[in-house]
Amino acid sequence: MKQSLFILVLFCCTAHLYAQKNQSPKPNVIVIFMDDMGYGDPGFNMGIGYATPNIDRLAAEGMRFTNFYSAQGTCTASRAGILTGCYPNRIGMYGAFAPWETTALNPKEETIAGILKEAGYNTCMVGKWHLGSKPPFLPTYFGFDKYLGLPYSNDMWPVHYDGKMINDTGNHRYRYPVLPLLEGDQVQKYIRTLEDQGQLTQTYTRYATRFIKDNKKHPFFLYFAHSMVHVPIAASPAFLGRSENGLFGDVMMEVDWSVGEILKTLKEEGIDKNTLVIFTADNGPWLNYGNHAGNTAGLREGKGTSFEGGQREPCAVRWPEHIPAGVICNKIASTIDLLPTFARIADAPLPKQKIDGIDILPLLLGDPNANPRTEFAYYYNRNDLEAIRKGQWKLVFPHKARSYMGHLPGRDGFPGPTSQVDVPLGLFDLSTDPGESRDLKEQHPDIVEQLNALADKYRRDLGDNLTKIEGTGRRPAGVCTACKDNFRR
Fold it and tell me: Which structural domain range is residue 256 located in?
């Protein structure tokens, strides 16, 4: 009897160890998040005058989205959205915070890094943070084991558009502190010149590839938030003059090189087939910077607006043997959908508080019948519901907005003017008019009525300053009291 019991126990232990040995490891996850990259900037969409073979490879070997949206059309808000799976206004995040802004991401909010870390992942962030500029509001306090990057945008420094230090105390840019490159929550060095900026892509890439090599035997999450192609754009000497499209093309070729280094490292370490890589961007191009800005491939307006040029982003997703290669997905998806999708892939629990993201794994796996996200709300400023989309239809509500139209753009790093315009109510069929040029509200009053009813649902939950509705589902942001003194003295 004892011998039989011993054999049974031995058999069970052996079976358990065999199952553990043969169990597929959890996939690694990499998000490459560009800054101010337009829908038309990658070669796979419309990039002209430069080559992006590595970014294009992601699309060719994976899935390319044509209706993929950032959470909001500006820096801080879009980054809050991608990391928390929430519309930014749900969690009190908006705009593009200055270094001294006391509003920050609330430590109670759970991030992708936090939930994956709880699921056994090692986590790293490289690049632009912009959700709080002092401890305890930096990445390593939100689930990231390691961090190297800038705490906010690379144009928030006391340097003029021509690259010279600003000494005029009357210039509003004089107030900015010298730009710090942080490792963890400590300053590693200061970025003082355009030449220093030109080294950022190389520096980030070396740090990211080292993290991959160090964690090849352990599941990891890498959030690589490039500072480029946000102005001031800069490239290293190895890429200057390489393109036919001036400095902007050189910078595009260097960030493409960076993507190639990530893919090469995954291949060399034997983990490329078990790594999900997503390439996308935070918002559209800053069009008034002219030849230092990207393009929207004909979408209306750009960064800082709720038109398609401000929020519809390039997106390519590669995960060999899981995501079918060379597929174009025309379904609606958003950066806020990444958190619940990664949670499902990693078998991790969702955040305890309500989020707005939807699991889009069925889309990624190529299910032709999947359509998890059928609607999207375009919020801007602190809490303005400026538009709503349902299927092919987009209803734009009356609001004041930045406009680049009717103005000549600047050149060589200097901005051109923009204007504030009154946007009227408008209905657009994005399936035939992605440029939002033909208002169809008079022809389709029934669609206007349906979309107004849908907007009211969002207003009851998230509020809407344009219609003076508070909303019941919003949560407070964090307060960074130490940030208020973060300015040049």
Answer: 25-373
